[in-house]
Amino acid sequence: MSSLRNAVSRRAHKERAQPQARKKFGHLEKHKDYVERAKAYHKKEETIQRLKEKAAFRNPDEFYFKMIKSRTFDGVHKVQGEANKYTQEELMLMKTQDIGYVLQKAQSEKKRVEKLNATLQSTDNQPSKRHVYFAEDRDEAKELQSRSSNHEKLPASADIPDRIKRKTAASYRELEARRNRVNELEKIYMDMAMQKELQSNCHFEMQKQTAQTLPFTIAKFQWQRLLGLPQTTDRGEEEIHEQREKNK
After folding, report:
1. Sign for the pseudo-dihedral over CA of 167, 170, 175, 178
2. Nearest CA-CA partner of 77 in 92, 86, 66
3. Is 134 helix (H, G, I), strand (E, B) or coil?
4. What's the CA gap between 183 and 198, in Å, rounded?
5. In whole angstroms, what separates CA 117 from the centre of its chain?
6. How far is 81 from 147, CA to CA, in rounded Å?
7. Do the beta carbons of residue 207 and residue 224 sit within 8 Å?
8. What is the DSSP code string of 157-219?
9. Which H helix or E strand runs over 224?
10. Computed from CA positions of residues 25, 26, 28, 34, in that sequence, does the dihedral angle turn out positive or negative?
11. 248 residues of the chain, pLDDT tens digit each
C-alpha cells in the first residue's frame, strides 16, 4: 500500500514568497535553504575542532623528511621546487611525446578538413534536374524553349529549404574553424620542434640572419652541426673560392 500511496500524484505545497513590504531584504529563506546553510556551518565547525585537537596534541619534536625541502610563507607550507628532478634524456623524451601528440592532432584535423571540403564541394556542384520536352514542330519547340528559359531565370536557391541552407552555413563555419585550428596546431608544432632542437644534446650553432633593409623581415634561423671541424667564416670561404679559381 505504501508504494501505491507514493505513486499517486499529490499537490505540491509551495512555500510563500517574500512579502511585498520585505522585498528590500532579498529572498525569503526556505527550509531547504536553512538545511543547506546549517550543514555547511556544522561542517566548518567540525573542521575547526579537528584542527584545534591536532594542534593541541602535536608533538613539538616530530620530524618528517619533507620538512627539509619545505618552508613556510605567511603561515603556509610550500615545497621548494626541485631543479634537477628529471634528467636531460627524460625531458627530451617528454618533449618528443608532446610533439608527436600535436602532430597527430594536426594530421587528423587536416583529414577532417579535406573530408568536409569534399562533401561541401560535391553538394555545391550537384547537377540540377533536367526536363526533356518533345515538340511536334518548330513553333512548338520555340515556345517550349522560351518557357524553359523563363524557368531557368529563377534563382536556384529558391528551391532549397531553409533547413538545408542553415546546415550548409553551419558546415562552412565548421570548415573555417577547423582550418584555423590546423594553422594553430602547425604553429605550435614548429615552436615545440625548435625548443626541442635548442634543448637537444647535439651541439648546434644557431645563426640569426636578419635583413637590414626591411624592418618587417621575419628572422631566419640557420642550424649547423658541429663535428669538431674548423668553422668556415666568410673570409675562409673567399680563400677557398680563390684557391678553386687558381686550380682551374
Report:
1. negative
2. 66
3. coil
4. 23
5. 21
6. 83
7. yes
8. GGGS-HHHHHHHHHHHHHHHHHHHHHHHHHHHHHHHHHHHHHHSSS-EEEEEE--SS-TTPPP
9. strand 220-225
10. negative
11. 667 777 778 887 777 888 899 999 988 888 889 999 999 999 999 999 999 999 999 888 888 888 887 888 888 878 777 666 777 777 788 888 888 899 999 999 999 999 888 888 776 655 555 666 777 777 777 787 777 665 555 445 556 788 888 888 888 899 899 999 999 999 988 888 888 877 765 544 444 444 444 444 444 455 544 444 444 444 555 665 676 666 65
Enter the DSSP assignment of 85: S
Provide the whole-model pTM: 0.40
Whole-angstrom distance, CA of residue 104 vs CA of residue 89: 22
Q: Are 131 and 148 in contact (CB under 8 A)?
A: yes
Type and span of the H or E element at 73: strand 70-73
Q: Which helix (H) or strand (E) is 78 found in, with range?
A: strand 76-79
Assess contact for 120 and 175: CB atoms under 8 A: yes
Closest CA to 151 of 135, 133, 166, 164: 133
**Cα 161 from Cα 153, distance rounded (Å):** 19
The identity of residue 27, as a single letter, is: H
The DSSP code for 23 is G
